[in-house]
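Exercise 7.
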Amino acid sequence: MLFIFPFLWMIFTAFKPENEAMAFPPSLMPRVWDWDNYKEVFEIVPFATFYKNSLLVAGLGTFGTVVSSSLVAYGFARIKAKGRGVWFALLLSTLMLPPQVTMIIPKEVEESAYLDGANTFQIYWRLILPMSRASIITVTLLSFMGFWNDFMTPLIYLHSMEKYTLAIGVMQFQGALTVYWGPMMAASTLMLLPLILIFFTGQKYFVQGIATQGNKG
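Solution. The predicted structure, written as tokens, is:
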């Protein structure tokens, strides 16, 4: 209950009128349910544009992360190329060791595919990716949540409101002299909805992601 209390406070504050949101002593449940806060979310700022921008950034960023991570992990784990150690050391100098590289996938499966005439990319696409499905889905979910919640990067590079993501857009309800507590809580709730859906949809893959799919008989 202690951990879920801030989440409940945000949800109920999203339905409070402004004077009640700032009332003292505070109360968890609203005395007057104000549904206009969700309407004002789209009137005070271009919230739909922020949502679209976040979906675009998170979607493209997640796609690029999953594709590049799986290709690089497979390449370092299996392809014996000249200078491989140097490039791998260079990678580790800027990144921590990706868990995908250390996962055990039986080489017998790849050797059988080579004997059947498959090339390296076909093995990666038709064998490695399906056997690593749980791990890849886990990386996908974590990457999406990371891009969705990223505040610092858009804050540095974006200077036009039409390009703001949700992380910056929610802050627009807080001005120099005024804070729209109700609409800001409503906007925060709307921002969290996709993450809640993703969590409950893909939570089983977080558990499966630590198991090696290739070792299943």
